[in-house]
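lol so apparently i was supposed to do this last week
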Amino acid sequence: MTQEWSDIDAYIVEHLAPPDPALDHALAANRAAGLPSIDVAPNQGKLLHILARMCGARRILEIGTLGGYSTIWLARALPADGALVTLEFAAAHAAVARANIENAGLAHLVTVHVGAALDTLATLDAAALFDFIFIDADKRNNPGYLTWALKLSHPGSVIVVDNVVRHGAILDAASTDRDVQGIRGFFDMLSRETRLTATAVQTVGSKGWDGFAIGIVT
Ligand SMILES: C[S@@+](CC[C@H](N)C(=O)[O-])C[C@H]1O[C@@H](n2cnc3c(N)ncnc32)[C@H](O)[C@@H]1O
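anyway here it is w/ S-adenosylmethionine bound
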């Protein structure tokens, strides 16, 4: 990561994602609870918020809650009668997230499920489809998450998948890193998937060199 990438992110955030009590509180509470600092950057959180609003999302699914930082950005995009379902493996992370979401005044819109997301996904109401899906959990399971995202979405739904570049590690076909292989498998699926029009974009910034994939269900 270069200092310039972080400095530019700081410049963007200063202009376009200024201090916000609920979001700042969430990051501070995450730090105090010892959660890893792997939430989306503020300008990326705002991008998720804008994307969800652009597609008029009323129901949002998030896979990978951590302390609820991206959850808050996304839930703020919902109408008053909207709903956000977020899935988190670690009970300790979910507890911090619930408190952060409550503090942000969004608890009435958000349900946090604890457990392995692949298990939880199988328990969700298959008829209650999502307009926007954000995949940001263990990357090794991205192929499985994409399969579920397609089951739980409808034509016009938007699917965003974070961390699909991993400092360029995805180019290594022989990588023994299961997360890298999960992303490679995910790209293979995307390249064949006719139900989704998708692309991916590299990013640099305060979180280093990475990228996200985005697709619209056709
Ligand atoms: C990158 S963090 C999510 C960051 C969050 N979306 C944000 O930007 O604020 C990934 C989260 O996925 C969770 N996770 C890992 N494996 C999981 C699994 N199998 N099912 C559900 N959550 C999982 C981790 O515990 C971690 O909290």
